[in-house]
Amino acid sequence: xxxxxxxxxxxxxxxxxxxxxxxxxxxxxxxxxxxxxxxxxxxxxxxxxxxxxxxxxxxxxxxxxxxxxxxxxxxxxxxxxxxxxxxxxxxxxxxxxxxxxxxxxxxxxxxxxxxxxxxxxxxxxxxxxxxxxxxxxxxxxxxxxxxxxxxxxxxxxxxxxxxxxxxxxxxxxxxxxxxxxxxxxxxxxxxxxxxxxxxxxxxxxxxxxxxxxxxxxxxxxxxxxxxxxxxxxxxxx
Length: 237
Fold this sequence. Notes:
This protein is 87% helix and 0% strand. By secondary structure, the chain is mainly α.
């Protein structure tokens, strides 16, 4: 029968992973909403041409999604390379000096509150079943069975950005010409309220504060870009 504490630790780890993915997805969607909405309202401030507005919006969506995906791939790949290097170093140390590494593992568990005999017993059993796994977990905080995957992160970030960026483009498409700006602002406002609430939920923070920050930041970005577009339109640039 599996150890209840081990089951609890696995469950807690899975919950943290889900929350981390949710947080990353929400932030990616929020970036897509704000950046693309700022582009389309900025162009709409300078020109009433739906063709120009959509061209700019779609270009911003594609560029932003690809940039987000590439950035996430590079970042997570770097993290994975670092983890692999640490694991390889640990594997080499265990191979060259297993007695020292067992003592080191026992000391780690002593530091967590176990008595010396129990800490040594735990270290011996873990070293017998999987020394690299045991050291990676206790010493490095790395789960060998759940290493970061750059491609998963890339696809998730790209999809999250796209799902957010498509909202202002849809708003521009469905709105009558005289109401494009207010309808886009309203649609983005609702979307930002949702992402702000989800962001607070994933982080366990105040929903009101998180939502206000997200909404104010997004609305401010759109207002500034719209003002710049309007200025350029008046100047005939």
